[in-house]
Write a structure and sequence with these properties.
Layout (H helix, E strand, L loop, with lengths): L5 E2 L1 H18 L9 E14 L2 E14 L3 E5 L6 H8 L7 E6 L2 E2 L5 H11 E4 L11 H11 L4 H14 L15 H13 L5 E5 L7 H16 L3 E5 L3 H5 L3 E6 L2 E7 L4
Parallel strand pairs: 4-9, 4-10, 7-8, 8-9
Antiparallel strand pairs: 1-3, 2-3, 2-5, 5-6, 10-11
Helix pairs in contact: 4-5, 4-6, 5-6
This protein binds adenosine-5'-triphosphate and magnesium ion (MG).
């Protein structure tokens, strides 16, 4: 792990006041941001540890077009997961503004944010995050029932996704009865369940065997063709090859944004 910059609470407070002032002065309009999957301005995310704060995201501004595939890469501890969580509405920033599809999500109450997430952003986590007491099928049905789909339809949708993932014979399995690759495929099916316009994936091909890894890469290629907005934290060359834009991230900051024309 690289050494993180540790800043005092006083410094952080002063800098947050400054960045909030900047955001207000910028006066970003919702209308202006409708054409983008993401517009974020001056994002800051700090984690408090004892008397110190770690600035995991440090004044990040970014625009992501609808239907773009973005790869975020950078060393361990750079703040990639933290940034992904902010962009997908899993966490809220300490300061700064995020619009997603024209909706300002950065200061939503948790209840509204979780509803927004359910319909707009599908997360694929590095450690799968399946609910351990639910079967594969039930894990996929879970977000469908939260969004109000009736059980019969949810079952059909879950089954369709399980078949797509090559897991129809693992329907009744609990997560601990599945291999890592199978768990990851259930997790992807769950992320796709409500057909969200944006998919966020954190190292989706890490720690998987070659065959499953290729299956998941092909799936992302297919998702890209379906015009979903996709944000992937990865170091995988194949996935990087699918990117419309590669963001190099370190120490909470964007070091470089490379636009790939031919994609
Ligand atoms: N919940 C938390 N509480 C306190 N500090 C945290 C928390 N999550 C992350 N951090 C700190 O924030 C920094 C960025 O972490 P993050 O997980 O976003 O990095 P990352 O780039 O995803 O790293 P990796 O490649 O290892 O997954 C790290 O220094 C980490 O220790
Ligand atoms: Mg991470």
């Amino acid at each position: 792990m690289p050494e993180k910059e540790i800043v005092s609470k006083k410094m952080v407070k002063e800098s947050l006041q400054e960045s909030n002032k900047n955001v207000l002065e910028t006066g970003v309009l919702e209308e202006e941001n409708k054409g983008y999957a993401i517009v974020c301005n001056d994002l800051v995310k700090d984690y408090e540890i004892g008397n110190f704060l770690v600035r995991a995201v440090d004044h990040v501004s970014l625009k992501i077009n609808n239907g773009e595939l973005i790869v975020i890469k950078g060393p361990s501890g750079a703040g990639k997961t933290t940034l992904l969580n902010l962009l997908g509405g899993l966490d809220s920033p300490n300061s700064g503004i995020i619009y997603s599809f024209g909706v300002r999500i950065s200061d939503m109450e948790e209840e509204s944010l979780s509803t927004w997430r359910l319909l707009n952003s599908g997360f694929v986590f590095q450690n799968y995050n399946l609910i351990s007491t639910l079967t594969s099928e039930e894990n996929i049905i879970f977000p469908l029932s939260l969004s109000g789909m009736e059980l019969k339809k949810s079952r059909e949708r879950a089954m369709k996704l399980l078949i797509k993932m090559g897991l129809d014979d693992r329907r009744e399995h609990l997560p601990f009865q599945l291999s890592a690759g199978e768990q990851q495929r259930v997790a992807i099916a769950r992320a796709l369940a409500n057909n969200p316009p944006m998919i966020l994936a954190d190292e989706p091909t890490a720690n998987l065997d070659k065959k499953t890894s290729q299956f998941i890469k092909d799936l992302f290629k297919e998702l890209k063709r379906s015009s979903k907005t996709i944000i992937i934290v990865t170091h995988d060359d194949y996935l990087i090859g699918l990117a419309d834009k590669i963001i190099s991230f370190d120490d909470g900051k964007i070091l470089d944004e490379e636009i790939i024309e031919e994609n």
